[in-house]
Amino acid sequence: MDDTILVTGGAGFIGSHIVDLLLEQGQRVRVVDALLPTAHRERPDYLDPAAEWLEGDLRDAAVAERAVSGVTGICHQAAMVGLGVDLSDLPAYVAHNDLATAQLLSAMAARGFAGRLVLASSMVVYGEGRYECPEHGVVAPGTRIAADLDAGRFEPPCSRCGRPLDPRTVPEDAVLDPRSVYAATKLAQEHLCSAYGRETGVPVTALRYHNVYGPRMPRDTPYAGVASIFRSAYAAGRIPSVFEDGGQRRDFVHVRDVARANVRALTATTPIPGAFNVASGTPRTVLELARALAEACGIPAADAARVTGEWRAGDVRHVVAAPGLAAERLGFRARESFTAGIAEFAAAPLRG
What is the pLDDT of residues 289-318, one digit of tens each? Predict the structure, then answer.
């Protein structure tokens, strides 16, 4: 095809897999990446040379204008991710996630972009997941207080009666409640792109990734995911720490499934606007992840994790996705095996 699709952050963990799949399908691809030191030291050798390469920071209007020139689809993956170090990271998150997105959208408007925009969003926009009280039905969870957490009572209480709640899957129309700087910037990205879509008529698809894992994941840093933290610990001969009791429920989705969701949104016969959960549909606890990864790495079960009982302010207890809307409207269903995917991840080198 003669059309070119721009993948921002295309040298990254998820972006590079999207580039691979687009190229496999015969698409022309342009990659723009700032090669931030927290993510890369240089252009990675796994990035397919068939993709047009543009090194640059989207916060720079000139870079954004070059990036969008002549493209018919945009897959916006570029972002700072993770919880970061502390609030000193706040300006960097806002700059790289929201200012860069604003510059990208401004450049698109200046070029009269009329294609599709697919945004990498995140399950972090939900905050705590969805819960049901035996007496009051679906309710907003109450705040987890320090005294309860110190005593090992980790489940959030009902905001109306204080009873323990049962976790449920989170649909896309749930109330959004970002609880970290990163989460706030991801929700702002959604709002900025939605505003652009309303003004221009450009279809916008926001893909809310759940916990992504797989090859090309970066090593353990404050900006890495939990799977990377565990994998890095095993590689270094350390036992990773697990907060609370390890019973926090998440949905771990393979990076190739995430890439397929993006390519589906970019290339479907007709645009599919809206927000969609991108998840495996099978929740697991953080401790289950640690044990599965340890087994795949040949680590004794006793050394899979050190459950500390410690807790961190702002952490959420459970957040797992309802995958039905993505299946119904986007035609996306995860298909990678968790067991095979974890075995592959255990053997794959971690990105430096």
Answer: 999 999 999 999 999 999 999 998 778 899
Written as one letter, the residue type at 43 is R
Which of 158, 249, 213 is CA-nearest to residue 339?
213
Categorise residue 102: left if φ over 0, alpha if ψ from -120 to 50, beta otherwise: alpha
- Which sign does the torsion angle of CA 172, 178, 183, 184 carry? positive
Q: Which of 93, 126, 131, 182 is catalytic?
A: 182
Q: Are 258 and 217 in contact (CB under 8 A)?
A: no
The Cα–Cα gap between 56 and 311 comes to: 38
The pTM score is 0.94
Tokens, residue 4 = 């070119």
DSSP one-letter string for 242-260: E-TTS--EE-EEEHHHHHH
Q: And the tokens for 56?
A: 């640059």
294: three-class secondary structure by DSSP: helix
182 catalytic? Reply is yes
pLDDT band at 224 (very low <50, low <70, confident <90, very high): low
- What's the rounded Cα separation, in Å, for the pair 9 and 167? 34
DSSP character at residue 306: E
> SS3 for 89?
helix
The dihedral of CA 318, 252, 15, 266: what is its sign?
A: negative
Helices (H), the chain: 13-24, 61-68, 90-93, 100-111, 146-150, 181-200, 226-235, 255-267, 286-296, 324-325, 338-347
The DSSP call for residue 143 is P
Compute the half-sphere exposure of residue 151: CA atoms within 13 Å on the CB side of its CA.
Answer: 7
Q: What three-state secondary structure class fits 58? A: coil
- The maximal CA–CA distance of the chain, rounded, in angstroms, is 61
Cα distances from 141 to residues 59, 246, 314, 322, in angstroms, run: 37, 20, 14, 18
Q: Per residue in 304-341, is it b (16+ CB within 10 Å) or e — as a string?
A: bbebeeebeeebbbbbbbbbebbeeebebebebebeeb
Q: What is the DSSP letter of 126?
A: G
Residue 24 pLDDT > 50, yes or no?
yes
